Amino acid sequence: MNRQSAATLPPEMGILLHNYAWSPAISTTEPVSILSINFAGYASKVAPYAGPFKALRPVSMAEGETPYSQIAKASGTDVGDPLCAHGTQPMQFAPDLSTYNITTNRAVL
Predict the structure, then answer these.
(1) Domain that holds residue 52
(2) Is residue 3 in some structural domain?
(3) Using an 8 Å Cβ cutoff, are 90 and 18 in contact?
(4) DSSP label at 103?
(5) In a domain, 1, yes or no
(6) Whole-angstrom Cα distance, residue 24 to residue 21?
(7) Which is deepest, 26, 31, 64, 77, by most CB within 10 Å?
(8) Residue 12, CA distances (Å) to 55, 59, 101 in order
(9) Side-chain half-sphere exposure of 78, counting CA atoms within 13 A
(10) Do the domain assignments include residue 4?
């Protein structure tokens, strides 16, 4: 994880992925923000870390336990997923930052 903040995460926290994608089911004019939390453990243990994101009241949310062999597919990073498709140039950054400027982020889109 990118350690720019003073936050401490347990060793079970594998990765936080934040991606933008097009989802016509949600909006035909704006990209959607997709957050994936990969945590090696039970849902009850990840709750304190996922809670603040759930408090944002996302339009759509899926959660559950996934076997290790299916993590890439469940988080949208499998070789057949749009993020990893041929010809794309994905940019991924860990969201563990000291500051985050949503206005600038939206302007870049």
Answers:
(1) 13-108
(2) no
(3) no
(4) H
(5) no
(6) 10
(7) 77
(8) 22, 27, 28
(9) 11
(10) no
Token duo for residue 65: 């336990």
In a domain, 40, yes or no: yes
Say how many domains are in the chain.
1
- pLDDT tens profile 2-52: 444 556 777 787 777 777 878 888 889 988 888 888 888 887 888 888 888
CA atoms within 13 A on the CB side of 11: 0
Q: How far is CA 54 from the centre of its chain?
A: 12
Instruction: Give the side-chain half-sphere CA count within 13 A for 16.
Output: 18
Residue 97 exposure: Cα atoms within 13 Å on the Cβ side: 9
CA-to-CA distance for 95 and 34, rounded, in angstroms?
A: 12
Instruction: Report the pLDDT value the prediction gives residue 90, as an integer from 0 to 100.
Output: 64
CA distance 20 to 2: 19
